[in-house]
Design brief:
The complex is a heterodimer of chains A (326) and B (687). Chain A is an alpha/beta fold and 326 residues long. Chain A has two domains: 47-128 and 262-325, Periplasmic binding protein-like II (D-Maltodextrin-Binding Protein, domain 2, 3-Layer(aba) Sandwich), CATH 3.40.190.10; 129-260, Glycine betaine-binding periplasmic protein, domain 2 (D-Maltodextrin-Binding Protein, domain 2). Chain A is built from 13 helices and nine strands. In chain A, the strands form two sheets. In chain A, strands 1, 2, 3, 4, 7, 8 and 9 form a seven-stranded mixed β-sheet that branches. Chain A has a two-stranded parallel ribbon with strand order 5-6. In chain A, helix 2 (56-73) crosses helix 11 (289-301) and helix 2 (56-73) packs across helix 12 (306-316). Chain A is globular, with a radius of gyration of 24 Å. The termini of chain A are far apart. Chain B folds into two domains: 67-331 and 342-375, MetI-like (MetI-like fold), CATH 1.10.3720.10; 404-680, MetI-like (MetI-like fold, Orthogonal Bundle), CATH 1.10.3720. In chain B, 78% of the residues lie in helices and 1% in strands. Chain B has 30 helices and two strands. Chain B has helices at residues 19-41, 56-73, 77-120, 122-137, 141-171, 173-188, 191-202, 206-231, 234-242, 247-258, 260-275, 278-283, 289-299, 301-328, 338-364, 387-402, 407-433, 436-451, 453-468, 472-502, 504-519, 522-532, 538-561, 565-573, 578-589, 591-607, 609-614, 619-629, 633-654, 673-680, and strands at residues 374-376, 381-383. In chain B, helix 3 crosses helix 8 and helix 21 (504-519) packs across helix 23 (538-561). Chain B is globular, with a radius of gyration of 27 Å. The chains are: A alpha/beta (326), B mainly alpha (687). Chains A and B meet through helix 1, helix 3, helix 4, helix 7 and helix 11 of A and helix 2, helix 3, helix 7, helix 13 and helix 15 of B.
């Protein structure tokens, strides 16, 4: 029975130490619960929590912003990594201040921005999302007619009659497009983005033909030479053409290229009202697709430390950064 | 339904010598009828839309909206109560993390190793030391400690909730039966389905991550505790009551001490289940290794793999440490003299003294905070981890695998195509394209033949529910993948399980492999399989097989091991060869356990259906994943419920006749942990 007493001794000791440790740290900000710029409304920047998403482009935005805020405003930037949808609730609760790259989650805009008013729009980041059909450059060189979708007609067997679909959680309408365009292609899904990249990059390395759903900005576009197959353009005649097959209905109404996706910045209401100078700077922050891909490639492709990559870009682009700081 | 009904049980099929063979023939006949119906009525009868409750996903969506509104208003007392729990969970994780940081990395390493050395022996201590050192060398120290704190808190809360419920369930059979289906649902419904509601109620951060982990980790705690309490012999309980003990005294002085081993096993299993949720926890602010895995998948697969390995190492170290402590501190095994007690006491004091000294020393020398990536001296800088070189090696291996001219590709690609063309596609076509009433009736009839009337009725209701929820087609697609994956897992699992049971060396050798397969995040190891297999549902099947195999192997091995020695010795006395003993005595006597392996395999396969969706298997897994990522909450929930219904239906089809299981009194849970534990008891092995 003696051992039992030892066990209790361990438990008591741990509990004691724990509470001592906890008391000792109480003065600090609790981790993850950044209070935004609530400290001293006005000049002092304080703590800013920015959320980073899984993809490399998002990492690039976050570390560019971090470099500017820390260097020029003396803020303390904390980076969280919460998934795209849950982060809306995180902003509503004031646990995350800033999302720099949101791909038009319109349902959440309605719930959190319009109805609950706990999240505010931060305007476009400047990066424009573009979804389309892509092939490796070597395929395009051999078959120049693939420049537009009409060139695919009758030559589907080049791709083994397969179209490699995108991540099922992304906006897409390729099954409907294939039907509406009358192409003899079978839509296959490799799964989530990492799995899809594994598929087409494998084909690319073998110089095999492959036709797939892809988008810009994406750092892999700097590593792989890809070419786009043009889909039927958007004109006055088909301006109601839809992009998200989630809505269902007749394939014909999806018969056009994907529209440009405006990528938005979002702020928590609390952060926007805090008077933090960081808010003004982030609102003015603008990046081009090239800026983002460059930094993303440095991080994901060349394995550069994100902090360094962000700081390097800021150093090289002082003109742009000064416009945000004005 | 008229096509294939239970009436097929014609006596002509049943052979008098072997009932089992007769049942095989009956199942064959049912399947044959289904195939005939498929050829005649292919695609003619999809699930009728008039039999679909189409408003269900929409209703679920508005339920989520309602929850959000309630939460935003903030006046609901129910939420105030939950807020209290949230604050507590947040505090617990933060306090643990702060404590570990306060110990400094040297102190954490020394304290962990010494405590395990004192209570668990040097083998376990070496494993723990090795784990800490590898976190440091992999350059993942900070993330590992964050994960350790989160998992520590989650395990503590799981036990604080699960053990009392388990004790009550162990003392009250009706309560036990009532909560069993709830426990089943908690484990089979994918976390993706309830992630968003959890976040709405508990916000993001440590608390939400703890809650999600709790949902998955509490069931084993409850089940094993209940089993332990009921495993106490009635004689002991009656004796204590005869001596006038109160109910509480009986519990604390008799039942709980006698169930000690089981309670420690509950701890052990809770740790394993909790660690398999690290990646999901990362999505909602859990931080740590989960974040590294998720980000790595998008931009650095080698890093994702490395973080996955760190999770596995943590699981193995915790497993070895807790089972060693369980073995060593068992009072029944220790007969200490007074002198020995004093000595043990001194050793304990010495240990805590040493830890305190190291911590103080480390803090004085400025080693506080996290493990540094490099050490700086006056003249030069030394890197303190070998992350870059490990990542380089992993990348080389990945590059080799990605090359279709590689040696492995020549093996895996044909196998993948074979599975696809011969099994997956035909079965999918049969289940999806045959008339819905034929499939429904056929599966029900198979359940009746194999398991009896009540299971057949349950299976019928579950399958009908799937149709009514409007996901018949994807569910049948998933069912075809689940069946193929289970079949492969069972065949391989039984073969390896028997081999391991006969050869202890093999068992020891595969144990770390099984631990790895159960805790390594599936997405991490499935990427290489994507390279090696054709674009299809095959990688998803491979992922399920790898996840399900450990359970099958463990059940088969323990089943064969626990065959009583008497019949084996009798057979040997009659001059039976080793092979004959195995085939004629051991395997038939372990049949229940092997059947349970089939059953458990199915459930494990279902538990990773979502992963299949992420690697191109489509069907239900795809719907669940989309439910979270595209705000189609209702759709995700419906698909999750369909997975659950499919699980229950397949469980009823494969469970076999209950009558043969007289040696397994508690026939309750689908996950069968209770039954499994009981069988593993003689070997004393921890999973």
């Amino acid at each position: 029975m003696k051992t039992h007493r030892h066990m209790w001794a361990v438990v008591t000791a741990l509990t004691l130490a724990l509470s001592v440790a906890a008391c000792g740290e109480e003065k600090d900000e609790p981790a993850g619960g950044g209070d935004g710029g609530s400290a001293a409304a006005g000049k002092d920047c304080g703590n800013v929590v920015i959320n980073e998403n899984a993809w490399a482009g998002s990492t690039a935005n976050v570390y560019i912003a971090k470099a500017v805020l820390e260097e020029d405003l003396g803020c303390e930037v904390e980076v969280t990594k919460i998934a795209e949808i849950p982060v809306f609730q995180a902003m509503a609760d004031g646990k995350v201040d800033v999302v720099l790259e949101d791909w038009q989650h319109v349902d959440e805009y309605e719930q959190y921005i319009e109805k609950a008013k706990t999240v505010v729009q931060g305007g476009p980041l400047g990066v424009e999302g573009h979804i389309g059909w892509f092939v490796p450059q070597y395929v395009m060189d051999e078959n120049p007619e693939f420049e537009t979708w009409e060139g695919l007609k009758g030559k589907e067997d080049v791709f083994n009659s397969e179209f490699l679909g995108g991540d099922p959680s992304y906006v897409q309408k390729d099954k409907e497009l294939i039907e509406a365009l009358g192409l003899d292609l079978k839509h296959v899904t490799a799964g989530a983005e990492p799995a899809q990249v594994a598929r087409w990059s494998q084909a690319y390395k073998q110089e095999e033909p492959v036709l797939f759903y892809w988008y810009t900005p994406q750092y892999l576009n700097q590593e792989y030479e890809l070419a786009e197959v043009k889909l039927p353009p958007r004109t006055e005649a088909n301006k109601d053409c839809k992009d998200d097959a989630k809505e269902g209905g007749d394939p014909e109404q999806y018969r056009c290229e994907y529209d440009i996706t405006i990528i938005n910045k979002l702020f928590s209401k609390k952060f926007a009202d805090s008077g933090s100078p960081a808010y003004d700077v982030l609102r003015k922050m603008k990046l081009t697709n090239e800026d983002q891909e460059l930094v993303a490639k440095a991080i994901a492709g060349d394995k550069q430390d994100p902090e360094e990559a962000g700081a390097d870009w800021v150093a090289d682009n002082q003109d742009t950064v000064q416009q945000w700081l004005e | 339904m008229a096509v294939a009904s239970g009436r097929l049980r014609a006596p002509a099929f049943a052979s008098p010598t072997s009932r089992f063979r007769g049942r095989g023939a009956q199942v064959g006949a049912i399947v044959a009828l289904m195939v005939i119906a498929y050829f005649f009525f292919k695609d003619d009868f999809p699930w009728p839309s008039s039999l679909v409750w189409a408003e269900l996903p929409g209703k679920l969506d508005s339920a989520q909206d309602w929850l959000l509104e309630q939460r935003t208003e903030g006046s609901n007392p129910f939420f105030a109560m939950l807020d209290g729990f949230r604050a507590f969970a947040d505090w617990l994780v933060t306090a643990l993390l702060d404590f570990l940081t306060w110990l400094t990395w040297v102190g954490t390493l020394v304290a962990g190793t010494l405590i395990v050395l004192r209570y668990g022996g040097w083998r376990a201590a070496l494993v723990v030391l090795g784990a800490f050192v590898s976190f440091a060398l992999m350059g993942l120290w900070e993330e590992s400690i964050q994960t350790l704190a989160l998992m520590g808190a989650a395990v503590l809360v799981s036990l604080a909730i699960g053990v009392p419920i388990g004790v009550f369930a162990g003392r009250n059979e009706r309560f036990h039966r009532a909560i069993t289906p709830v426990l089943d649902a908690m484990q089979i419904v994918p976390a993706f389905a309830y992630l968003m509601p959890v976040v709405i109620v508990f916000s993001v951060g440590p608390a939400a991550a703890v809650i999600c982990t709790l949902i998955y980790a509490i069931p084993p705690a409850v089940r094993i505790t209940a089993l332990g309490i009921r495993g106490v012999t009635p004689e002991s309980v009656e004796a204590s009551q005869a001596l006038g003990a109160t109910s509480a005294q009986t519990l604390f002085k008799v039942q709980l001490p006698l169930a000690r081993r089981q309670l420690l096993l509950a701890l052990n299993q809770t740790i394993m289940f909790a660690l398999s949720l690290v990646v999901i926890a990362g999505l909602i602010g859990g931080r740590g290794l989960g974040d590294v895995v998720t980000n790595g998948l998008y931009s650095n697969p080698a890093l994702a793999l490395l973080a996955g390995v760190a999770i596995v190492i943590m699981a193995i170290a915790l497993d070895r440490a807790t089972s060693a402590i369980a073995d060593r501190t068992d009072p029944a095994r220790r007969q200490l003299t007074d002198e020995g007690r004093k000595r043990a006491h001194r050793i304990t004091l010495g240990m805590f003294g040493a830890i305190a000294l190291v911590v103080v020393g480390a803090r004085l020398l400025g080693a506080d905070g996290i493990y540094p990536e490099e050490f700086e001296t006056a003249t030069s800088i030394y890197t303190a981890d070998i992350q870059d070189s490990i990542l380089g090696w992993i990348q080389d291996v990945l590059d080799y695998i990605q090359d279709p001219d590689s040696f492995i590709f020549g093996i895996t690609d044909p196998i993948g195509n074979f599975i696809l063309d011969r099994f997956l596609e035909p079965l999918r076509k049969l289940l999806v394209e045959a008339p819905w009433f034929v499939v429904l009736g056929g599966l029900t009839a198979i359940a009746y033949v194999l398991s009896g009337l009540r299971p057949a009725v349950t299976a019928l209701l579950m399958l009908a529910a799937i149709g009514i929820m409007g996901v018949w087609e994807p569910a049948m697609d998933t069912a075809s993948q689940v069946l193929v994956a289970t079949a492969i897992a069972v065949v391989i699992g039984i073969a390896i399980g028997i081999w391991a049971a006969e050869t202890p060396r093999v068992e020891r050798a595969i144990r770390p492999v099984l631990d790895t397969l159960q805790t390594l995040p599936q997405l991490v190891y499935i990427i290489p399989f994507i390279y090696l297999m054709p674009v299809s549902r095959v990688p998803g099947v491979v992922a399920s097989v790898l996840y399900a195999i450990p359970v099958v192997i463990r059940l088969v091995t323990s089943g064969i091991r626990s065959v009583p020695p008497a019949p084996v010795e009798a057979a040997q006395a009659f001059g039976a060869s080793r092979m004959q003993v195995l085939r004629k005595v051991k395997v038939p006597l372990a049949r229940d356990s092997i059947m349970l392996g089939v059953n458990q395999g199915t459930i494990m396969v279902l538990a990773v259906v979502v992963i299949g969706g992420l690697v191109g298997s489509g069907a239900l897994g795809d719907l669940v994943a989309r439910g979270l990522q595209r705000n189609e909450f209702g759709l995700g929930v419906v698909a999750s419920l369909a997975i659950l219904a499919l699980g229950i239906a397949l469980d009823r089809v494969t469970q076999g006749k209950r009558g043969t299981r007289t040696d397994l009194p508690d026939r309750g849970p689908m996950f069968g942990l209770v039954r499994r534990r009981r069988q593993m008891q003689p070997g004393g092995g921890a999973v």
